[in-house]
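User: Structure please.
Assistant: Input sequence and predicted structure:
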Amino acid sequence: MAGLEPTPFIWFDGELVPWNEAKIHVLTHGLHYGTGYFEGIRAYKCANGQSAVFRLRDHMQRMVNSAKILNLPCPYSIDQLCQATLDLLVANKMSTAYIRPISFVGYGALGVHPGTNPINTVIAAWNWGAYLGAEALEMGVRVKTSSYNRMHPNTHMGKAKACGNYVNSVLAKMEAVHDGYDEALLLDTNGFVSEASGENIFIVRGKTIKTTALTSILEGINRASVITLAKDLGYEVIETQFTRDEVYCADEMFFSGTAAEVTPVRELDNRIIGKGRAGEVTKHLQKEFFEIVQGNNPKYQDWLTPYNF
């Protein structure tokens, strides 16, 4: 990813701080041990001229849940985090944005145990287009099964969107890119399909959609949105374990995620998936998803938190 284009402000522990002044000490505990948790959220420009954050409260609920799982309490309530996000977007005059809230153990003791170190909370926002490339939304991406497994639930708390957990994703992503692919697919420690480095996985066979069960994966907000949307559109959705050879035989495959939105997969391990581009089911879901986030489907209006500036 290219360098981020600065915005005027970052929300830092209750204050709007100029981008270049939002700094931490080099001996911050979270920097050394990965003791933190974060979210990825998107705001979209809607057809009515307003802007809206997609599933803002659900994301902040998951952030607070991550805090509970890691036993690193978030200093702010869900309401406070939501309001801070809106304040930041308004202050930065951003009609669209990728939003990154993060809480981490701050400066103090530097042993493994975080002790009484403060927990700092930051919310930043920047402009970020299609995560895997604009052309990927139509043509799909090439994926490699990683040599790295998704962590076992007894080694890391996988339901937490924990900073340290993402070393696993970084290793898998670097390996895939080095080998000429766009993204990595990770298996769990039993050999079943788990998730990508930053996305949940769906496959399509006929009119049936399968996605990984909530065993070794992060409980994706966009994953839940796609499941609800697909069922409402009349598709059968099954949450279950499946193997990568079943993926090879799928009619379609796609990723979901805040950054990836709904991105088709055209190839896994040099096997063409379906017709080698976005399939009909994927395109249908993709189209309806973007209708929702742009405020064009009143049925899902409660998924949007509008704001003006």
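The mean pLDDT is 95.
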